[in-house]
């Protein structure tokens, strides 16, 4: 009979079985308790977390709005709860131990393989887009079109323009970027290697991943450092966390730890927690450690006043599908095409959580936002960007999401191709590491700065109230 006990970083068991619902309820409740006791009790009382989480994850943002300290309290308490609750199991028949045990497991150290590229570093920022590589005035015009369409925030366009005007920043001289989840489609690895940067790559020990990544490294101008055990390249963060931590800590230079990991279902929470445990471990040993994160636009964010005003104007204009808004709202008992925001209420709350992605995805991404806020408040260099919805393999394999993406343009939402997204996000990373970000009074403003949300923040309708229509239109378009 096969052993069902997972090993490595694991979800804590309830009645002998891992329970992500119990974990999610407890973490959200503990995050809220100090600033919103009523919200905390509501999370604890949930009997259907798979559906109820939508309300409670929104509340995590709303409860933090009154003050900077409220938002940071939620972040710190949420992180503390996760670290207290998550567990580590070394062997299938072993016991659940505290997460810190991941760093004490005995194992031979990893070695380093370095691949030095043969290409010349690119000296100009270029962004691939619809079969072209945009640079200079052409890139500038496209940035302005995205701003006019509400696809990105103006601060995002200005930030990319600043990088384009300072091409010497692209190589990130004096820094090494550790790309966790190096094979991810949304990661910056390809762009950084093109620009001649020094990159440290961590991903699973799967030959196909490393054949592709070393091929890129040889083709481009940067240097790629990767972990190895004998002839096997790569390392597993879930099971080899102690070895990965020791290997990274042994690298020379000023490090930036970039979190680009992703997995399906409960595994996403486990790997996200492994990365956060690694982050805490390395911060204790390397005070100059920088951090980098990508946020998903399908989450809950506070948004600027002008985004609320623009969405309100678009709602009043009732163009496109909006011409049928009244009968659709009547037929759906008010569920379809609801306003994105109440007019005049600032800051707005953009709730674009997608039920199909589920509470595990939401928790894994919120964990990263909490760590970014906590680390920024502690004085660390933090590169953070809201990335646009993108046609990655992990997303479009879900048929409903793929159909929604196909119909999203009907609502003014642009779905990006991976090459465009990851280059834009790499440019924002380069900016934050070279120039830093402006100081803001509240963490929500840090998150909203330079956001490339694809249009979700400025469209007239709340995302979930338009999702079903987008799916139907996407399916119809595919059939056509």
The gross shape turns out to be: globular
Q: What is the overall number of helices?
A: 18
Summing up helix and strand content along with how strands pair, one would put the structural category as alpha/beta
Computed Rg:
22 Å
In the predicted model, the low-confidence regions spanning at least 5 consecutive residues are none
| Largest sheet, strands/sense/barrel | 8 strands, mixed
How many E-type strands? Answer: 17
Distance between the terminal alpha carbons, to the nearest Å?
A: 49 Å
What is the gist of this entry?
The chain has 480 residues and is of the alpha/beta class.
Structure write-up:
The protein is α/β, with parallel strands linked by helices and about 475 residues long. The chain has a domain at about 10-105. The chain is about 45% helix and about 15% strand. It contains 18 helices and 17 strands. α10 packs parallel to α13. The longest helix has 20 residues, at about 265-285. The mean pLDDT is about 95.
How are the secondary structure elements laid out?
Layout: E1 8-10, E2 13-14, E3 17-18, H1 20-33, H2 37-44, H3 49-62, H4 68-85, E4 87-89, E5 97-98, E6 111-116, E7 127-129, E8 132-134, H5 136-148, H6 154-164, E9 175-180, H7 189-194, E10 198-202, H8 207-219, E11 223-229, E12 232-233, H9 241-249, E13 254-259, H10 266-285, E14 290-295, E15 300-303, H11 305-317, H12 325-331, E16 348-351, H13 358-377, E17 382-386, H14 393-396, H15 399-407, H16 418-435, H17 443-448, H18 463-479
Parallel strand pairs: 9-10, 9-13, 10-11, 13-14, 14-17
Antiparallel strand pairs: 1-4, 2-3, 4-5, 6-11, 7-8, 11-12, 15-16
Helix pairs in contact: 1-2, 1-3, 1-4, 4-13, 5-6, 6-16, 9-10, 10-13, 15-18
């Amino acid at each position: 009979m096969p052993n069902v006990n997972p090993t490595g970083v694991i979800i804590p068991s309830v009645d002998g079985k891992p329970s992500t619902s119990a974990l999610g309820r407890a973490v959200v409740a503990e995050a809220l308790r100090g600033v919103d006791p009523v919200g905390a009790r509501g999370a604890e009382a949930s009997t259907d977390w798979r559906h109820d989480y939508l309300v409670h994850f929104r509340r995590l943002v709303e409860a933090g709005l009154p003050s900077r300290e409220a938002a940071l309290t939620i972040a710190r308490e949420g992180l503390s709860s996760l670290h207290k609750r998550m567990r580590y199991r070394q062997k299938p028949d072993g016991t659940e131990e505290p997460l810190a045990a991941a760093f004490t497991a005995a194992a031979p150290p990893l070695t380093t393989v370095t691949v030095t590229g043969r290409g010349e570093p690119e000296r100009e920022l270029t962004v691939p887009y619809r079969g072209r590589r945009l640079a200079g005035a052409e890139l500038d015009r496209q940035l302005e079109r995205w701003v006019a369409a509400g696809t990105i925030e103006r601060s995002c366009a200005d930030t990319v323009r600043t990088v384009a005007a300072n091409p010497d920043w692209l190589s990130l001289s004096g820094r090494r970027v550790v790309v966790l989840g190096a094979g991810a489609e949304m990661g910056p690895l390809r762009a950084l290697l093109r620009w001649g940067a020094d990159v440290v790559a961590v991903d699973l020990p799967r030959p196909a991943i490393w054949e592709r990544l070393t091929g890129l490294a040889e083709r481009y101008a940067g240097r790629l450092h990767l972990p190895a055990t004998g002839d096997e390249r790569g390392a597993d963060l879930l099971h080899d966390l102690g070895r990965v931590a020791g290997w990274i800590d042994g690298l020379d230079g000023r490090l930036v730890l970039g979190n680009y990991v992703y997995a399906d279902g409960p595994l996403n929470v486990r790997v996200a927690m492994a990365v956060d445990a690694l982050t805490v471990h390395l911060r204790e040993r390397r005070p100059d450690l920088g951090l980098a994160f990508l946020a998903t636009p399908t989450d809950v964010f506070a948004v600027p006043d002008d985004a609320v005003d623009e969405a309100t104007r678009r709602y009043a204009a009732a163009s496109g599908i909006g011409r049928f808004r009244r009968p659709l709202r009547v037929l759906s008992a008010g569920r379809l095409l609801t306003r994105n925001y109440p007019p005049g209420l600032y800051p707005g709350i953009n709730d674009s959580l997608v039920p199909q992605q589920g509470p595990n995805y939401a928790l894994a991404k919120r964990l990263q936002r909490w760590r970014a806020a906590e680390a920024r408040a502690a004085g660390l260099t933090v590169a953070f960007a809201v990335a646009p919805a993108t046609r990655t393999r992990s997303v479009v394999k879900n048929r409903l999401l793929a159909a929604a993406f196909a119909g999203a343009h009907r609502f003014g939402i642009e779905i990006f191709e991976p090459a465009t997204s990851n280059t834009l996000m790499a440019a924002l990373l380069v900016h934050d590491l070279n120039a830093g970000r402006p100081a803001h009074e509240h963490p929500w403003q840090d998150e909203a700065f330079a956001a490339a949300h694809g249009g979700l923040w400025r469209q007239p309708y709340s995302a979930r109230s338009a999702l079903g229509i987008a799916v139907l239109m996407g399916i119809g378009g595919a059939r056509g």
